Amino acid sequence: MAHLHRHDITTRPTPIAFAIALAFSSAHAQQQQQPQETQLAPVVVQGRAAPSASVAGWGDIPLALTPIQAGVFGTEQIRDRGAQRLSDITGSDAAVSDAYNTEGYWDYLTVRGFVIDNRFNYRRDGLPINAETSIALDNKERIEVLKGTSGMQAGTSAPGGLVNFVVKRPADGTLRRASLEWREHASVTGALDLSQRFGADEAFGVRVNAAAAHLEPKVRNDRGERSLAAIAADWRLDADNLLEAEIEHSRRSQPSVPGFSLLGDRVPAPTDPRINLNNQAWAQPVVLQGTTASLRWQRKLAAEWKFVAHAATQRLESDDRIAFPFGCTDSDGTYYADRYCPNGNFDLYDFRSDGERRRTDALDLSVAGKLRTGSIEHALAAGLLSSRVKNRFGLQTYAYSGTGNVDGSITDLPANPAPNDFNTNRDEHSTELSVRDALRFDARNTLWLGLRHTRLHRQSERNNANDPRATDYTQSFTTPFAAFSHAWAPGQLVYASWGRGVESEVVPNRPRYANAGQIFALTSRQAEIGLKGGAGEAEWNAALFDIRRPRLGDFGNCDVDGSCIRRPDGEQHHRGLEIGASMQWEEWTLRAGAQWLRARVQGVADTAIDGKQPTNVPARTLKLQAEHRLAALPGLTLQGALVAESRRQALPDNSAQIPGWARIDLGARWDTRWAGSALTWRAGVDNVADRRAWRESPYQFGHAYLFPLAARTFRLSVQADL
């Protein structure tokens, strides 16, 4: 696909730009026809909100009253931070951090030190999706991040957390919103958000979101584009029935930026973050596109009960391509399998996997309500979730191209695009039965119980007729959750909880494994003691948690057929303290979060890593945000943020680390009016001091990678409510 050039933006108006211009001109024409109103200064209304988090699994119960820690990132917070992708929320929550996040690829998150699984730890309006794609935020009302084991909310998932995207639905009133954003180096995004109700008693509602962007970040050779079109509709059939439908299609095309690495046995000084090692003339963009649609029927039943039927389908298409650095052969013949050479050289491979197809279908039937048995009030819910996954891949290319260097100076290596390797197709069908009950004994004491039973059927087959390496297995398991909470005063809650989660693994059907096809249910466990409270304009929370996750290891020679056995091998043990607080004081709003984490790999046969800290996990994180509303200039709010993380391990044996770092971001928001329209101007600069540091050190594919902190970046946007 040909790259976009700057003149494409300046000489050819996009449909989004035309729609924005039309919306502005329509609003101006309406103002010309109507009497002019007296313009009043903006008024800021403050108050404490009580958000709920559906990802927590307890329905509409406010998050402040549940025995679960979760982060909720709303639309305004996302806009003020200039967030354009999921990984941008890592600057707002101390428990959430980066895990192999780079330009031009899908996002990975670490929650409480565990990398959450993009295949199983993501939800969209509560239904499972595959996050091995770029997920647009333009039509999302909020992002919810559950912290801890997610066995009650998901059949199979990695411990640490669960992410749920909540889609924007038709508003109660009319909404006409247009926005335009510029970001260094020359990225431009235009977006529309329109909502309207109509019909008798406004029974019908429609909301349309559209966005288009030219992507040109400060990283060199990384031009791209993205777009989104989404529509959501609802029909209030009567007072007891609500029907909702929505569909979105998104596309992103942009070259992926590979990581740097150790140079021999040393961690190099942080490099220029604008260097792109995927800089060959034949390098092609990663293309990620997908269509997701859902239909939901909610019916109110007698006595505060409700029935919900919710179905969704997701279809992803991907072309994954990159000039990929991996390892190095030194001039003396030494091969570095997990890092680059001491002189900065690396082996560069032509990787291409075109035509990847991923499909996820889900149907959820649930009933929830309240009843009383004696003096105990129950908040009951039961559900049935059926989901199917079908992933299909073609042949792939992974071929040696030549030698590159970390200074980015080598750009004339030959392409090697011919497919030379096979891939693995996967199918899955799962059925999950869940039940939960919040038993409220009195105004202060509540017992929370949950149980989920999962029956799983998985199949895989290599697309090589001569060596299919097929696996086929069925597995069942049950994941419980229990908690007790006590409100010792109004708005003050203390709780203790315990839960389990499961990851399903099968030994690959490869000749070297003597136990090929054996299945394992890796059961993770979490215990947590937490505190939540608030008084006046202040809120706080704290949690002590302990998470244990089993590991698998290979034992034996593993170089010849039948010489290797894969079996459980120790665990990854994370213990930590997470605290957070927010406060409004006169014209100030302050938010703070910190996490202290002791993460260890323990009980493993390899003495080199037993007792060591996992890679890419900071032991201490601090996230601070402050806002100040200027009384002298009503509508203007100044913003500041600090993100600080301690060192991370780069190798499993802890023989190399990257230092800790800190970053300061500044911003401003100005709410005003012009020609009868509400305007919100936002400006910001990320990494104000242009700090050079290694941001993260993921150990992926048996290789140590280093990603630099992004260079200082300016951004400016305007939002008009017409």
Classify the secondary structure makeup into a structural class: mainly beta
Residue share in β-strands? over 45%
Alpha carbon gyration radius: 26 Å
Alpha-carbon distance between the termini? 37 Å
Count of runs of 4 or more consecutive helical residues:
3
Largest sheet: 22 strands, antiparallel, barrel
Shape: globular
The CATH superfamily label reads TonB-dependent receptor, beta-barrel domain
Q: Which fold name fills CATH's third level, the topology?
A: Maltoporin, Chain A
What is the name of the CATH class?
Mainly Beta
List low-pLDDT spans: 1-49
Number of domains: 1
Q: How many beta-strand elements? A: 39
What's the average pLDDT?
92
Q: Share of helix among residues?
A: under 10%
CATH architecture identity: Beta Barrel
Give an account of the 3D structure:
The chain has 722 residues and is mostly beta strands. The chain has a single domain (6-30, 58-721), classed as Maltoporin, Chain A (Beta Barrel), CATH 2.40.170. The longest helix has 19 residues, at 15-33. The radius of gyration is 26 Å and the shape is globular. It starts with 5 loop residues before the first helix and ends with a strand. 40% of the residues are buried. Residues 1-49 have low confidence and may be disordered.
